[in-house]
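Subject: Interface between my chains keeps coming out wrong

I've been trying for a while to get a sensible model of this assembly. When I model each chain on its own everything looks fine, but I need the whole thing in one frame so I can look at the contacts. Pasting all components below, labels as-is. Any help appreciated, I'm running out of ideas.
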Amino acid sequence: MKKSLKEKIRLWKSLYVNAFENATNALPRVRGVLLAYNTNIDAIKYLDKEDLEERVEKVGKKRVFELMENPPEKVTSLEELFAGILRSIKLGKAMEWFVEDRGVRNYLREWGWDELRIGGQAGIMANLLGGVYRIPTIVHVPQNPKLQAELFVDGPIYVPVFEEGEFKLVHPKEAVKENEEELIHYIFEFSRGFQVFDIVAPRENRFIANADDYNARVYIRDEFKEHFNKIVKNVDLAIISGLQVLKEFYEDGTTYKDVLNEVEAQLDVLNERNIKSHFEFAYTANKKVRETLINLLPKFTSVGLNEVELASLMEIIGDEELAREVLEGHVFSVIDAIHLLMDETGIQRIHFHTYGYYMALTQYRGEKVRDALLFAALAAAAKAMYGNLENLSQIRDALSVPTNEKAFFIEEELEKEFGEVENGVIDMTDRQLTFIPTKIVASPKSTVGIGDTISSSAFVSEFAIRQ
Ligand SMILES: Nc1ncnc2c1ncn2[C@@H]1O[C@H](COP(=O)(O)OP(=O)(O)O)[C@@H](O)[C@H]1O
Ligand SMILES: [Mg+2]
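Reply #2:
Try treating it as a single job with all components included. I did that and got this:
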């Protein structure tokens, strides 16, 4: 019998409460998680109209406006830096350009920031898993300067150190390397309606000036190459991210394949040791790299992605039409796409997240898959609400954020198509499809790192919950 809206709200509310209990009780069972590879410094600046206009005038408004219309997509001069910022504002679009020029880097360093935060998917997840969930976490830091080390919160967060042949795990703050580089991503945030000259932002977003040579090439520290076996000895789980930046060729003659061979060797070590691994996708511009990443998925246990990323994979293993439908948000196309991705790769778990709902397709069954997704949705809502997560009670607070009612209609469509949907769980004989409506925060404090929060929370809690 069809449930009323009120009944649905009540049902999901109780499922959410239960999931929070189950997940938080289970998290202490995880012995350790490895996070690799990208960690950097995010320097956030909230743009100020007067300051920005003055700086643009100073470098030459005319040239900046010309470049704004003919975007160079990278920064080799101050004119290009400001062209990027203004273009992002004008389109209300998130953009990221690499800063090649030393002089511009110095200028950015002097211009400064309002806030520093740990950045990079591995870095962000370390502060969440180690700092908030209190799970022992080993994180890869391409460089470990003081400015970055201090952005890791206190807690069981470790980097491996090898001294005189001895292996130790210490907090990044205890392993600072004074001579290593500060890998800074300058994030210029603007709100909807932000005005500079005659340009008005149609929506809030950010422009990123990336001054980080290491993560751009997925630099892997020597310790991580030479002693990987020792490093992973105490972990049950691993989350890999940061491969999206790979390019086909580098100026020194190396290619993305050199990096991916190294990653593959590490995945082999993880698999030998039965360590479950998750790959967090991010939009990968280069099609060859994207294709090679798909070929690497069979070595992972799990993958996390959003609608843009899933569509970009369908351009390769599906077709243009399916890719377009996924982008347009057709739920049955999303389901077809994740089935296809599982057929092609054999991967055991696919976690799809989009605004308003998540779905997981798994080659195993259990309500823990749903509970993990629900816990992840609470973490995401808390992250949106507070910007920065410090403790579990903030995640508990997210229980009072309303559940997205629009997703109830999607759930009804699934019921029509598949028959029984048992509290979000659909038995597909050889696979389980799990669907949950998420919690949406109406005016988020920040949207940076929500995707990483979702995927890592779900992956880690699912494997922690026993059934
Ligand atoms: N206001 C919000 N409240 C709750 N969840 C949100 C909100 N805005 C975005 N999200 C979630 O964050 C996810 C962003 O993940 P993703 O697209 O992978 O971006 P990123 O990895 O850059 O954080 C969306 O799929 C959506 O589920
Ligand atoms: Mg993401």
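Reply #3:
Confirming on my end. The chain has 18 helices and 19 strands.
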